[in-house]
Design a protein that fits this description.
This protein is α+β, with helices and mostly antiparallel strands and about 300 residues long. The protein contains 8 helices and 13 strands. Strands 1, 2, 6, 7, 8, 9, 10 and 11 form an 8-stranded mixed β-sheet that branches. Strands 3-5-4 form a 3-stranded antiparallel β-sheet. Strands 12-13 form a two-stranded antiparallel ribbon. The chain is globular, with a radius of gyration of 21 Å.
């Protein structure tokens, strides 16, 4: 599965003599843009990707260890496994759980830079793990694989940095970095997401102010048009003192409102925690429990 899936659908009605009849039948031509990811299924759940330097054995072993943590989270939906000390023993022998791996040069097709030769190029390392062994590890950790169909998340995220305030959309240039990061986070956690278009937000008169009044009734119709099954709302505010984003997430599921937050992180990490927190609730593999603050900012047991 690619990191980012952008689906473009264009329906064009053409014709000569039969043109008018076709127009009457189909009423109008339509041009629709949408950005989103499809939820991982089957073998894709047991495949993940990390960035490594070069293709040497030493860095590959490091990549396998990082991939193992990611795939355990992806398969179970249990974000709380991130940084779990119990994984150390499994990471040390991660190679024994791998069935296949491959590399993709991130600089493929680009000229070799002057400094190359003193350091290796970055590669995407894609790793496939043996399903039975991953399931056994999860069982030992008191968790189970989340193999049922995963609901599609309609994600609404507001970004506030000083005077700048905007919503991440599927087509806006102002939020292109955040959009790519959200799609990558969803793919990494095995979740399907859809984002609203700028036109859909304008049509429904939705601004960042709508995110401060739960249960966000204005967002439901937009989510429905996107075929989103669960609404996930996030608000990120930049904090100069912490040099990171203070983030609040909210989602209604199972007759309850679930809220979680994280501070002092990049928006990439905030999105991973947001999508991961939603996955943990939806999978039934754990509630959201606050952990004590650390030097890196307030965290959640996700």
């Amino acid at each position: 599965m690619a990191d980012l899936h952008t689906t473009r659908r264009r329906f064009i009605l053409t014709g000569l003599g039969a043109g008018r009849a076709m127009v009457k039948i189909f009423l109008a031509a339509a041009l629709t843009w949408c950005a989103g990811t499809m939820a991982a299924t089957g073998a894709d759940l047991y495949r993940t990707k990390v960035t490594v330097t070069g293709q040497g054995e030493a860095n590959r072993i490091i990549g396998f260890a990082a991939s193992l943590e990611d795939v355990l989270i992806k398969v179970s939906g249990a974000q709380k496994l991130s940084g779990d000390r119990r994984l150390a023993a499994y990471k040390s022998k991660a190679k024994s759980f791998v069935t296949a791996f491959s590399y993709r040069d991130q600089f493929s097709g680009k000229p070799i830079r002057d400094e190359q030769g003193t350091r290796d190029r970055p590669y995407d390392l894609t790793v496939d793990f043996e399903e039975r062994k991953i399931d056994d590890i999860l069982k030992t950790l008191g968790l189970k694989p989340w193999l049922s169909q995963r609901p599609l998340l309609a994600v609404f995220v507001e970004m506030e940095q000083g005077p700048r305030n905007y919503i991440v959309t599927s087509d806006g240039t102002q939020s292109d970095l955040q959009r790519d990061s959200l799609l990558a986070a969803a793919d990494r956690r095995g979740m399907g997401i859809v984002l609203p278009s700028a036109a859909a937000l304008a049509k429904s008169n939705i601004t960042g102010a709508a995110f401060g009044t739960p249960p966000f009734p204005a967002l439901a119709p937009v989510a429905a048009e996107l075929a989103g099954e669960v609404v996930l709302v996030g608000r990120l505010v930049w904090n100069d003192r912490e040099l990171g984003w203070a983030t609040q997430w909210q989602m209604d599921w199972g007759g309850r409102t679930h809220r979680w937050q994280i501070r002092g992180v990049t928006f990439d990490e905030a999105f991973r925690r947001g999508i991961g927190g939603a996955a943990q609730v939806l999978s039934g593999n754990g509630n959201l429990v606050t952990r004590p603050p650390s030097a890196g900012g307030s965290r959640l047991r996700l």
